[in-house]
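HUMAN: You are asked to prepare a plain-text protein record giving the amino acid sequence and the backbone structure tokens, both parts labelled.

ASSISTANT:
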Amino acid sequence: MLSGKRIILGVTGGIAAYKAAFLLRALQKAGAEVRVTMTPAATRFVGTETFSSLSKHEVAVDVFPEKDSATDSWTQHISWAEWADLFVIAPCTANTLSKIANGAADNMLTSTVLAARCPLFICPTMDGEMFESPAVQKNLETVQEFGYHILEPEEGYLASGLEGKGRLPETNLILEKCNTVLSQYRSNGPLAGKKVVVTAGPTREHIDPVRFISNPSSGKMGFAMAKAAQNMGADVTLIHGPVTIEKPEGITTIEIESAQELFEQVQNHSDANVVIMAAAVSDFTPKETHQQKVKKDKADSSIQLKKTPDILSWLGDHKNDGQILIGFAMETENLLENAKDKLERKNADWIVANSLNDDDSGFASDKNKVHLLSKNDSIQIEGLKSEVARQVLSHIFKNS
């Protein structure tokens, strides 16, 4: 469950802060990418360099970081909140718990809590008498009413020298709780119980065994859509062309090469509740495919082409009741006009349109800038492709 997940680890100012370094390593070993945010008090127990070295990311402490910081934007708490699949605060002191319960935003950690769109999991850790105090117990009730998840501390020998309930639970228990929280989030997601088919990557139309017509699609956007659908609870089938990026875990994948092969697989899975056509499908294929390599001195100077199947049109013509059809459009000019026309002609419910002329958009980039259109709605979304995918599906299904 943690493999491929993006996790924010919040560390607050208690003696158990040193244990967060071991938790960070355990999360990484489980396959997660981890970023760390610390309260200023936490840095008195463990230096930021420890966590930045382990996480390979700069540690976020202040809302207004130093000017020479690699990430000097005061909006970093927003971008991190959009990035994360899970926010874990371990250890969480009584002070930070109180701030969370009352909506304070006086440092990067508490600000990111308020901006978070993902599940929040808190490990309250403090002296036993503090944990049992009426104020702390009331704050625990409050954050649970917010929908935040709590793993209660363990009993044992505390930093004060006393015995009591306040110790940070063992790392394996925290990992188990992380899995449980993510599982619950997925099972209650807007796509829970839905079958979703996503197409991704390029197609190849062979001229002969060593030459083909294709495009530069990396498959990153389609893979991001598949992962976002999975995180929202869907049973996802990903049909993709030749790509070099890593396949997402827990998702059924089907490899294809040509537009015809893609068409056949889409037809086989056209009973899905949602179909997301993110693949960059070749519009033309050679009329003749040679079985042997064509030698240069024997080759014609032109290649006769024929149109490939219009898969999105076929889906629009054969749409099931209640089925949602999401198409993609990449343009070099007249983006919105062409996207609206495609929406109508293909009988799609939504079109995700982006321009090759925009910076940080299009083929191979990790980022994207898109317009999401329906017959009655239009919004612009930009950011990492993973976040764009999440926002696209969240907007479509009205659940963030």
Observations:
- The two ends are 20 Å apart (CA to CA).
- The mean pLDDT is 91.
- The domain at 195-396 is CATH 3.40.50.10300 (Rossmann fold).
